[in-house]
Write a structure and sequence with these properties.
mainly alpha; 63% helix
């Protein structure tokens, strides 16, 4: 697995974890972030996303963008 794929997978797991922590469905978080639910599903499955999209998700989760990139080891 290359670094880029690994980064997107870590980001996907982080988003999913935070979403579940806030007791939101994928559809609810997608709506809050202004994203199509199918696209959001792709994101949680490791699809590459832009910083702009990551920022939308972070705002919808009520966190700072950088917090999405703090991964557990």
């Amino acid at each position: 697995m290359n670094y880029e794929t690994s980064l997107y997978n870590k980001l996907a797991k982080k988003i999913e974890s935070l979403r579940k922590e806030k007791e939101l469905t994928q559809e609810e978080l997608a709506e809050k972030a202004g994203l199509h639910r199918a696209y959001f599903w792709d994101i949680e499955n490791g699809r590459n996303i832009s910083i702009k999209t990551a920022d939308k998700i972070a705002r919808a989760l009520g966190i700072k963008l950088y917090e999405l990139f703090i991964f557990d080891k």
